[in-house]
Amino acid sequence: MRHCLALDLKDDPALIAEYEAYHRDVWPEVLSHLRAHGIRELDIYRLGTRMVMLMETDDAVFDAAKMAAAERANPRIAEWEALMWRFQAPTPWTPDGQKWTPMQQLFRLTETDHNTIP
User: Fold this and answer.
1) Distance CA 42, CA 1 (A)
2) Is the pTM of this model over 0.90?
């Protein structure tokens, strides 16, 4: 399944540069955690301070609630999440206590009758 989520960064060029540096060398424990919870692919895009994450998951394994509980229970993953929160900020539409917020899909080319355009 494909998931699209949004999150903001704090509007500070130095913090944004540091955040991007961490994502060029993500901790191996974080990568293992993602894969163990059914995340097949994960991309993060940034425009200014707005970020969009696209995740492809294995629905036989992926469970967002179980993954969040595992993040809290694993000290190294909890450390990564706390570190990332130094740079991150909720969007104006993010519910309290949440970080990455699911976005609503509005259109998909392959699910329309308009995909016959040459």
Assistant:
1) 12
2) no
